[in-house]
Amino acid sequence: MKKIILFLLISSISFAQNANRKYLNFKKTKTALEINTSDGKYILSAYSSKVIETSFIPNGEVFNPESHAVVLTPKKGNTKITNSKNSIRFATKGIVAIIEKSPFKISYSYKNKALLSEKNGYTKKDSTEILDFNLDTSEVLYGGGARALGMNRRGNRLQLYNRAHYGYETRSELMNFTMPLVFSSKIYAVHFDNAPIGYLDLDSKKENTLAYETISGRKTYQVIAGDSWEDLITSYTNLTGKQPLPARWTFGNFSSRFGYHSQEEVEKTIKKFQDDKIPVDAIILDLYWFGKEMKGTMGNLDWDKDKFPDPTKMVSDLNAKGVKTVLITEPFVLTTSSKWQEAVDKKVLATDKNGNPFTYDFYFGNTGLIDVFKPEGKTWFWEVYKRLINQGVGGLWGDLGEPEVFPSKAITVGGKADEVHNIYGHNWAKLISDGYKKDFPNQRPFILMRAGYSGSQRYGMIPWSGDVSRSWGGLQSQMEISLQMGMQGMAYMHSDLGGFAGDYFDNELYLRWLQYGVFNPVFRPHAHEDVAAEPVYKDIVTKAKAKKQVELRYQMLPYNYTLAFENNQKGLPLMRALLFEEPDNKALLNVCETYLWGNDFLVTPITKAGITSTSVYFPKNNNWFDFYTNEKQVGGTTKNIAVEESHIPVFVRGGAFIPLIKTIQNTASYSLTNFDLHFYYDENTPSSQGKLYNDNGQTPNAFEKGEYEILNFTNKSTNN
Q: Which is nearest to 521 in space by CA: 602, 451, 464?
């Protein structure tokens, strides 16, 4: 009985902690407002007129200023602090925080529009710490990383623990990218700036509450506001960093499978692409490049010379054909790998509590994990990459970077496993990005990764949606995943075209997935080798149909590369939900079946077998024209559209300028000496504009260096 009474007493104390929070005093610093309360200190600072950061430091704790996500620093003199009897107003020209003194409460608004407010603020439970907020009854919530839950994620309690979901289809509650970031249909975002694992509760108890729960770390969050969705996402990517412009070849076709077993197989595959005149820009080598078997060899991180006898010549020959080589790598060094002893001797691995390499079993064998937070680990790993890049390798693939298995007892220089689990892939991408800047400053990196964190886009990370089922259900979830991740800064989220997991053989599914892939950030068919992913290994009829999709992808290069430039400058997604177009249209807040490709294409993928017609809503601001027939559809209407076997429904905005080229065999021969400019005249759009960005496709920061050209197009029509 005594135990129960003691438990109730402790529970009531922890629950009452916030009800008893008392305002004491405040002070201004150069960049912040500090507020002392009975149980801790608040620090508020502004990064811009659209971003305010709030940190709570409980009594007895010291503020940790290190953010893994944020690149900005708070500005001096861009806030005004007003103190009255009942409240303190911390205001920028846009976003404002009001601190009520009794009872203590913080609320946020933007241009006089209420955003959200702290509910209890900070509370501590037995093993976790919580920040919670009040929500409106009507707001729709997005974010939390990559999931398949439906666009509106309100009502879910989302685990924040990067984890692969093999063979998922239409629902996946936990995937490779979990981000402590929430967007609201009221056009604001909250980012919880803390790395350790936890939960993001999007009103799962239906109490109009948003809660962030974590095991430890910073009690810091940013509230981000905007005048439109584009403006909001620009503000978020200003805060966490912009994606560098990828090399132009990134937008070409990839030859990829799990996997190519030999040099002979690689060369034979590329020869087939050339013989069939199917454009290709890169070939991706899965784990057989370093070992004959799937198990026991991970961590070799060097060519298997039996199967790849002359890799330098192979890579050189491919480069001469304009085809880049991309190699898979993993952060695991098996105790059976050729590099195990070297990794132990050089102390590059995560350790146990006694400082010895932490080893454990997982699918591929008994392993250690490279400590990417440790200077020695970073240097050692980068030297592996540097050797491969010097050999001519054009891109790097970081797989299993969640990390796939990472026991809680493992210790890194950055912290215990659960404290750094979600930022492992983020820091892995950073070490590659930093290495390129130092040793290959004239080369744009290609970093394909399946796990990351808020702000990973600034390291040039190209994310993909993991081991999706090769099924119609697998295809159906892809639009949601890419649209959500694009909102969260990760604009290059894409899928294994055709699906990855399983030996399901369906040419209709394969072609529909490729048709969707044309209007996707990255065009990369990839799958288990049981059923070939590459068009060149399909039957003659399917190959011819797939070839047309690859060719269209190359014709779209000028438009797509300009989209990439826009993303680099403004952070805007390449794939955009219809809510961008009509933010006040409640019917569109949960729509992902149709989306915008850039500003000017409206795309409706076909995600079910045997479909002969589909319903499409045409946004109201313009009329829309069928990309294949030029037939006009009136804006603001919903129409039933006949579905063709040869393509998915794609429409172009009235007034748009669409630059296209003739098909090329790869981007090495890309040129704008000749291109076709398609203008879609619309009597309801009397004026419009467009642009075409161009550079050499290779130089990092070409725009900032002035090594670029932009062609601007304008249209103005009169009654005559």
A: 464
Q: Which of 72, 31, 334 is nearest to 193 (CA)?
A: 72
Closest by Cα among 311, 328, 330 to 266: 311
Q: Which regions of 529-600 does DSSP assign to beta strands (E)? A: 575-577, 595-597
Task: Report CA dihedral (298, 299, 303, 305) to the nearest 10 degrees.
Answer: -70
Q: How far apart are CA 459 and CA 532, in angstroms?
A: 32
Instruction: Give the pairing of strands 324-329 and 282-285.
Output: parallel
pLDDT at 492 exceeding the cut of 70: yes
Question: Which region holds residue 331: left if phi is over 0, alpha if psi is between -120 and 50, else beta?
Answer: alpha
Stated pTM of the model: 0.96
Burial 593-602 (b: 16+ CB within 10 A, else e): bbbbbbebbb
Between the CA of residue 93 and those of 96, 661, 694, what are the distances in Å?
A: 8, 45, 36
* Among candidate residues 486, 494, 487, 489, the one with its CA nearest the CA of residue 463: 494
- Tell me the Ramachandran region of residue 22: left when phi exceeds 0, alpha when psi lies from -120 to 50, beta otherwise: beta
SS3 37: strand
Q: Kindly list the catalytic residues.
A: 399, 402, 467
Euclidean distance between CA atoms 512 and 154, whole angstroms: 30
199: DSSP letter: E
Residue 76, pLDDT above cutoff 90: no
Integer Cα distance of 554 and 573 in angstroms: 20
* Exposed e or buried b per residue across 549-588, where buried means at least 16 C-beta atoms within 10 angstroms of its C-beta: bbbbbbbbbbbbbbbbbbbbeebbbbbbbbbbbbbeeeeb
Give the amino acid at 206. K
Over the stretch 409-446, which tens digit does the pLDDT of each residue have? Answer: 999 999 999 999 999 999 999 999 999 999 999 999 99
